[in-house]
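Exercise: predict the structure of this protein bound to 4'-deoxy-4'-aminopyridoxal-5'-phosphate.
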Amino acid sequence: ESAERLAQIRQDFPILARRIGDRPLAYLDNGATSQKPVAVLQAMDDYYRRHNANVHRGVHTLSEEATAQYENARLRVARFINAPSEKQIIFTRGTTEGINLVAQTWGRANLGPGDEVLITEMEHHSNIVPWQILRDQLGFTLRYIPITDEGLLDLDQLSNLLNERTRLVSFIHVSNVLGTVNPVDRLVAAARSVGARVLLDGAQSVPHMPVDVQALDVDFLVFSGHKMCGPTGIGVLYARRELLEEMPPYQGGGDMIREVKMTASKWNSIPYKFEAGTPAIAEAIGLGAAVDYLSQVGMAWIHAHEQALVQYAYSRLSEIEGIHILGPGPEQRSGLIAFTVENIHPHDLSAILDREGVAVRAGHHCAQPIHDRYGIAASARASFYLYNTPEEVDQLAQGLEKAVEIFAL
Ligand code: PMP
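Solution:
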């Protein structure tokens, strides 16, 4: 029954029928971006063909339709993460912009010399660099929760790293390199005990498992549409309502104002205060269709499917000669595996796999500190999604065996 379901899901993604040379495509680079189902392509196409107009401006029919579709997408995203209100959903360009928005608005208003921001050694660059830039401007201290040899956060260090000057704990929910699923409840409780706010990077969790912002009790959640069957150029910042009300605007311009005089202006209400200029309308509508699609398949099903795949992949890849898998064992990880193979550069691995039709990513995956931590420059990563199959895991393993043969000569 599950195989039948999987075959049906694959039908929804036209690109999966592609061949790479004479091999069927095995797309295992979902951590970088996911493929798009017909429902999303059609929603965007339909918008441009039949409803295209600017939002929140015209009183003509098309503008009203475009606005209704755009706002309806916000409502569906709110429901998808169980946000109390759609007003707490700010459309951004993606995870990166969401974190920069929080840094430049909440951060600028709340951080100064003597204050501390706590992140982790397993962050994506997008949750490191914005804080470094701001630290250099405002003079607060940036601290890191270290990672253990096994690839877990070293929470024994928490009590040394947190104090009454800690204003924010900002961390990755699921590591895009280690696959580690971090214990949000423990980190939220620790942050609360010193009165710090919590930002959760959900780029690798929201697409793959049920995420409920009220249950997680975080102050900010950011994620990207393109990693969850939606288009590029659209993402989400969720935040607690009172924080959004207090925060100054991010960018100035049209739509974010209530009134503009030559001397001064007044801001629009949330969420519009944070959405200056013409937004990514078609992309938001595409994201709305993507969350509908994911909900229809079922996030619990998607999570269970990926868990089964990653466990199979873990055991299959463990048999490869000279392989080192980064991060924790299969029971503690999300649906991705990063690895190195002795004496073969990850880029060579990736090139050989490509000849077998297998798409994996090679490099530092925007997480250089993790690679430094384990004394390597780069790794290869296979990352799974709802449409991947055990046969594709076999295709990956066979490609790796070939690579080992070629390089052993
Ligand atoms: N955080 C994590 C955990 C990610 O995996 C990514 C994407 N690789 C990002 C942030 C950045 O997302 P985006 O490039 O869509 O802004």
